Amino acid sequence: MAFELFSKVALKVDVPSYKLRKGDVASIVEAHPGRPGEEAGYSLEVFNAVGETLAVVTVRESQIELLTNNEVLHVRRLNEVPA
Q1: What phi, psi does 61 have (nearest 5°)?
Q2: Does the reported pTM lie above 0.70?
């Protein structure tokens, strides 16, 4: 599945080095086609609740998913420890 630039997506995995967790929302800012036999990747820009950039991270296509109309956004603190 190819994602369009500037689509809103959710992480399907945690990215601990950036304090990001599964379900965090990001915008696709660049696509990275994989080499033959390799999975494509994407650069994502992650924002805080007031629209400031927190991080730009690169992930594999299988690590993100499109948002759907039956989901709701949720706010969490960056220093929150997973349960």
Answers
A1: -55, -35
A2: yes
